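Reply to dn_fold:

You asked what the input looked like. This is it:
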Amino acid sequence: MAKTKLVPKSWIPAGPYSLGTKCGNTIFLAGQIATANDGSIIGDTVQAQTEIVIDKMVEILADGGMGLEDVMQTTVYLQDLDDYNGMNEIYAARFAEPYPARATVRADLAGAGLRVEISCIAMKD
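and this is what came back:
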């Protein structure tokens, strides 16, 4: 199967990677962070950053003909596990049941001020 690069209009990857790739009926999203195209961080709370990250995910998924309802699995990376409840508040509001399978881990994120990063796998029948 051929791999297709997803290229949303609003977001430009900051390095040698694709924001998302599609192969058949499956989309793989790179970890999304709350940064503008110039590299500046958007949002100073984990709630604000989680909203921005999920907005990015929605746009990239749409480029592949999918939406949040097609997300099967997510991995959430938090700079500080004390931000778990704030992230989870927004996550629960944006995703619907049945929720995707999820792993949440603490990680040193690549940028001072970043609080959350989310990657996902989506599939559509």
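Residues 36 and 42 are 7 Å apart (CA to CA).
Hope that clears it up.
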